[in-house]
Amino acid sequence: MSDGNSTVIENSFYKQSTNKHTGILSWLLTVDHKRIGIMYGVTILFFFLVGVIIGVLMRLELIAPGKTIVDAQTYNSLFTLHGVIMIFLFIIPGLPAIFGNFFLPIQIGARDVAFPRLNLLSYYIYVLGAILALLSVILPGGAIDTGWTFYIPYSVRSNTNVSLPLLAAFILGFSSILTGLNFITTVHRLRAPGMTFFKMPLFVWATYATAWIQIIATPVVGITIVLVVLERLFGVGIFDPALGGDPILFQHLFWIYSHPAVYIMILPAMGVVSEIIPTFARRTIFGYKAIAMSSLAIAFVGYLVWAHHMFTSGMSDTARWIFSLLTFIVALPSGVKIFNWVATMYKGSIDPKPPFQWVMSFIFLFSIGGLTGLVLGSLATDIHVHDTYFVVAHFHFVMFGGTGTIFFAAIHYWFPKMFGRMYNDKLATLGVIGFFIGFLMLYFPKFIMGYMGMPRRYYDYLPQFANLQLISTIGSWVLALTIFFIVGYLIHALVKGKRATSNPWGGVTLEWHIQSPPPMENFKEIPIITHEPYDFSQLKEMKDE
Amino acid sequence: MSSHNESAVAQNHVHRDEVGAKMGMWLFLFTELLLFGGLFLVYAVYRYQYPDQFHLAGMELNTGIGTLNTIILLTSSLTVALSIAAIQKRNKFLSVLMLTLTLTFALMFMVNKYFEWSAKFSHGIYPGSEELLSLPNGQILFFGLYYVMTGLHGLHVVIGIIILSIILVMIIKDKITYDNYTKLENSGLYWHLVDLIWIFLFPLFYLIQ
Ligand code: HEM
Ligand SMILES: [Cu+2]
Predict the structure, then answer these.
(1) Which residues form the domain of B68?
(2) CA A81 to ligand 1 centroid distance, Å
């Protein structure tokens, strides 16, 4: 495989504008996928930190029984904002918008996405949605207090600013659809010669499967949200039992999107894992096709399980056991992935650099999240722990321990490529350890409390929970401090870090064939692909190039 | 193993991939279908729940205007297709003419819609009105869905009018020509979708009674 870039050092994309502007406008009006990826990165990281701060405030309220720092109504708004920010502004767009944008075109040997201008538009739609969501906080009426799920009747009866965040969610969905559409077309049209579907890196596969979910599921929640807004404005009656409507119908429509959305969150993360493990185990991935196909299987079966969120909402028994069964089935393709990853590491020569450490932490936390998901997917146990801290612990393990951890893994893996600098490995290892300890302290007690009966979304609790709640709050400090510590040493590395070589980890996918940071055009000549994606015999060739 | 790939480079430099653009458009139309799909689902649920009252309420709608609008919209789909055919044959004048006709039909559709809705309003039938709330639940839902679904469709017609007007200007200014008409084609596809959705809305509200 040749790219012709390693010999001649070109200007990186930071130094070359895609438009006639220089300075800030060369960023704000850029159509380069790498710059757009970085702009998403900055924005999304900002909202993530806002979400973390709100989370810490909630934990502070829960440090002792009774009212501590906020009243019940404020707590309601806090968890809603926290949920909305973390779900719609951080975890759903996170990996595809930042790393998908930056690396998907490079990994298939393209110069950009199929629709570069649409890509920039998606970014601004995202920003618009984010602003609308946060505007509701300062406008009179008060911040939305319905929970991020906007269940009827709260969302119709609440006197707070509900319509604005709903509209924001609609707009954010639109951004997500446009990104998905862009990626699908990119994968179909812009693969380099020789890059067949089964030579694509698994991150591309995962992002591709995700893109399909984005465009298939998002419109349904879009229309559902519009219906709620219309309900609030005009009282149409579609979800209002007094007028013959059905509030449960809202839950169905909402989860038909929002369960597949869970896979929008996790699939790209699984893709990143499938990149990192081969690189640091120096071994081709075990079961390439099985991993690629399991992404599609998850995307497909993921559509048929939505009602497991509604086991206690009122459904026929037949429906309940069918949905329970399907939920168990969707665990299979996830299991396929985990086993293949572990098999890849078997007898590999593992080099446990920080990205790999993050992945280890992911496998551990995500497995706990996944297995407790089965507890919630079984009818009998779900009835017991539904709407308790058990659920809160479960989804933080899956979303934060799963996708959130991989968010950090991806940053650490691709940081040298994106910014051309290295960070300090020791500090990074400290970061992984701090995160892991803080995470378990923060969320593991919630499983126990949930099992004991502590309901979610309460600002107060009975004295018997006091010790566990205190541990959890201390955990939130450890975790939040670690996160700021990580952001800190990464920013330091941006300025002061050692210069990165083009291939610091010894990866073989296409991004490691070009210089760090990549030149504006990515490839001077479009490469011709002859190798399997994780064929490490290339490494020697790459050194000779 | 290095080799220079002319075609790939060339393809990437000219930022125009017509197949890609059309693929993107089809994907977008697919999401539009799903958007309405959600509403059709809601309609199906309530039609199943209140068959008799949907029947009664459906008889209140003006089948005449509905039929007229169906014919108008179908014809406009034809003219937009002709406009594309004309530009392929390098007949700019005909293309402009056909697109203008399409726009005229679209406006006619909206005017009819306006009269239809205002007639309903003057009978006191609109979401939240006393008149409507005095009806049985099934009828309230029927009219609720009627306003939401035809309203959302109307919104799409308005967006279509805006897009087609822009396209019209582009043809006149020779930004869209016989060898570069993907934008016109894609807008045409969008317009067919608007038509297609109406083809479903029309029988569901005006015909099955
Ligand atoms: C340091 C980081 C975090 C802390 C301290 C934290 C803490 C909390 C707390 C205390 C709650 C409310 C529990 C309740 O009373 O029911 C909560 C809810 C929630 N969190 Fe987090 N969290 C953090 C990170 C995240 C992340 C990264 C995500 C998503 C990826 C997330 C998603 C959610 C969601 C969706 C809810 C539910 C909101 C609702 O009930 O509507 N959190 N979190
Ligand atoms: Cu689910």
Answers:
(1) 2-206
(2) 10
